[in-house]
Amino acid sequence: MNEEALNTDFRNGILNKLREKVCTVHFTKADGEKRIMECTLNPEFIPEEFAPKSDAQPNLEVVKAFDVRANGWRSFRLDRMDEFVFGPAAL
Fold this sequence. Notes:
alpha+beta; SH3 type barrels; five-stranded antiparallel sheet; 1 helix; 5 strands
């Protein structure tokens, strides 16, 4: 399998998990700040007023997801993701 196919499979795996439930993403922002985001693409966890108009993810390097703590849409770059946890962060 070539690198592009591996990257596509990896990205699709992340998107599929986000479509199932709230997940926790640890990543580094462009300014170098570390961030932890609990996010989802599952409509059950997205307030109606924030419902997406489409499921499109046009940029293959960036994932757009709903941040359940900030109550808004945010994005992260896959190449800056440090950890992905299938489920919300433990308190």
